[in-house]
Known about the structure:
alpha+beta, Peptide Deformylase, five-stranded antiparallel beta sheet, two-stranded parallel ribbon, 3 helices, globular
Amino acid sequence: xxxxxxxxxxxxxxxxxxxxxxxxxxxxxxxxxxxxxxxxxxxxxxxxxxxxxxxxxxxxxxxxxxxxxxxxxxxxxxxxxxxxxxxxxxxxxxxxxxxxxxxxxxxxxxxxxxxxxxxxxxxxxxxxxxxxxxxxxxxxxxxxxxxxxxxxxxxxxxxxxxxxxxxxxxxxxxxxxxxxxx
Length: 182
């Protein structure tokens, strides 16, 4: 089921999310709904706070970035109770967007590698390193469970340029082609 995505300005998006355990109610259905929502909205990641749940859960599907490329491979994973252990590598800029901030993009500098510890849907622990676009998408979604939005990481000049658009989103004026709520 496609769920409405919270828009910029909702206080849940700025709150650090809490860990969950294996008895979290209807977790399997929640994860499926998050996949459905992300795909419908044409995203590559979605964090639980974006659908109104302040829990440490996000899904990532970076496969669309690799459809036309022979090198590299995308990931499709669920991350529960994730903790970034280390960000490393060369910093690089990339234009990011966010389903909670429709119509706005901005260049964000992130490190090229991330070492992350997380649980899968069966609550088994994993520690993995990801690079390039996979690392970037994970870092973006991880920021959501930490209460951080990508617009906080863009240049001051860009922030000034988009400030009016952000205010419009807060007031419900947006061009999202998927269900949203304030």
